[in-house]
Give the backbone structure.
Amino acid sequence: MDWLFFGEISLAGLAMGGLYGLIGLGFVIIYKATRVINFAIGEIMMFAAYLFLAFAGGMEMSPWVALPLAVLGGSVLGGVIEKVMIRPMLGESSISVVMVTIGLASILVGLVELGWGADPQLLPEFLPRKPVFLGELYLAPKIAYGFLIGATLLLVYLLYFRFSRGGVALRATASDQAAAYSMGINVRRVFNLAWVFGSLAASLAGVLVAATGGLSPQFGAVGLSVLVVVIVGGLDSILGALIAGLFIGWLETVAGAYLGGQYRMPATFAVLAVILVLRPYGLFGTHEIERV
Amino acid sequence: MEALLEIDNIEVVYNKAVQVLRGLSLRVPAGAIVALLGSNGAGKSTTLKSVSGLLALEDGAVTAGDIRFKSRSMKGAAPEKLVRDGLFHVMEGRRVFEDLTVEENLIAATYALSGRPQTFRDSYELVYTYFPRLKERRKQLAGYLSGGEQQMLALGRALIARPELIMLDEPSLGLAPLLVEEIFTIIARINREQGTAILLVEQNAAVSLAIASYGYIMENGKIVIDGPAEQLTANEDVQEFYLGVGGQEGEARSYRDIKHYKRRKRWLS
Ligand SMILES: Nc1ncnc2c1ncn2[C@@H]1O[C@H](COP(=O)(O)OP(=O)(O)OP(=O)(O)O)[C@@H](O)[C@H]1O
Ligand SMILES: [Mg+2]
């Protein structure tokens, strides 16, 4: 066995997994606060990545201006979705809300195809190109810097939730909605912010992932891997999403490298099945989850 | 003069089908402790939820009558607006945020002060003077507190909000008699020292009437008897039905626990 190769593959996988963790975090924020399973998270990522393409490619902005703008666009999209599509569904069964997010996903795919066509596209290069070495291990610079940027946002989120007053409001709402209302917390506003924050995380990750592997209207399928991540981690566990993200990213990459690309997804789903048999609520999940 | 809270002949229906309140009226004067008593399922909690606006979250609605707080009609106002206006509802079963620390629970309650001048710091110290035990435990998760401490935390959150009226839903629920006495003494103290009016919902009629100045007894969604506390305590029917030694207390408790569990589940899904 070539340990150097294994090390490099593992490193790349973990870096990729960090971005999965970030997307998973976006998903978990929305789920924890609002109990909505957002099947459109992958398409929100895709939408932000296309925005980046439009700003940095078509409109020739500096990528470092285009990146925040695209992320902002994705966040606003999340906020608008909550307001016009999800809020009116309040009180409906969770299965109908899930159907709405699935429908939303196809609408976004359709819109993107209308605007940019169905062909795969490459994002303009914007991350430093200098090779990155950790000890002897080489890591592709796009992946390394993508991971760094993603990890920074992740850290900011974790600190915000843990220590800020807004973080308390969010966790209080997640813990007991009615009680949160009775404290004077504007729960509807928290719902909206959860969608904005969740979409922001997904949008940033979307641009970074697309920067390494290219972009097409099918890009949202990454969301499927993320769904596996959050199910493995436990839908309502932020820590779970991070750890599961790293693990699934690593597993996919290693399975792809040693068994061939066609085994990436099967390997992941096999692990998913095993974990769900052993721990139905995921590795770190706490609450009972309604099966949908 | 108009009382602080006036409930006028309200009717409440859940799920557009089940009528629970049938023309209920009561009033709470500023600065007073008023007890609302009644057995399981009488509609006491529903009354409080109608006032605080939490009813809408359970698909309930006030279909007739009016509710006025500080002389303004509050029917249909958003719950967080009412809290910020000085009306605090301590829900049945305490409902502390279990995975937040004691301190964070209190921070959550500072949202009630949005748009009001008070500084947050003062309020924390105020809570800790009434409940020194909470100060010792302030870094602990609320889920690990004892039942009595959780009730203290629920009252502490109310204090943070600096309300004019606190509605307490069964503060004695599941507490040992000695602790009930301690909690009720503090409730009376808060009323006296802070001038906060209190609408006290209870099944434990004896302790409630001991600290209240006025009492209402409800059955089946209506008030059946009301009067000054001493008068109710002396009333023969009240003595027989509400102050007598309850032989089936234990049974009632467990039935209620089952109901709670179900209601919580409804919330989560
Ligand atoms: N969310 C709801 N949906 C439908 N019916 C409800 C709901 N909440 C309460 N009820 C019904 O309304 C009636 C009154 O309930 P409520 O909780 O107000 O009684 P209570 O006097 O507080 O009783 P307890 O002492 O047991 O707390 C009961 O018959 C109950 O089943
Ligand atoms: Mg009740």
About this structure: The interface with chain A takes residues 52-54, 57, 59, 78-80, 83-84, 88-91, 95-100, 104-105, 107-114, 157, 161, 267-269 of chain B (CB under 8 Å). The pocket of adenosine-5'-triphosphate (ligand 1) is lined by residues B 14-15, 18, 20, 38, 40-46, 58, 92, 203, 256 (CB under 6 Å). Chain B has eleven helices and ten strands. The first helix of chain B runs from residue 44 to 52.
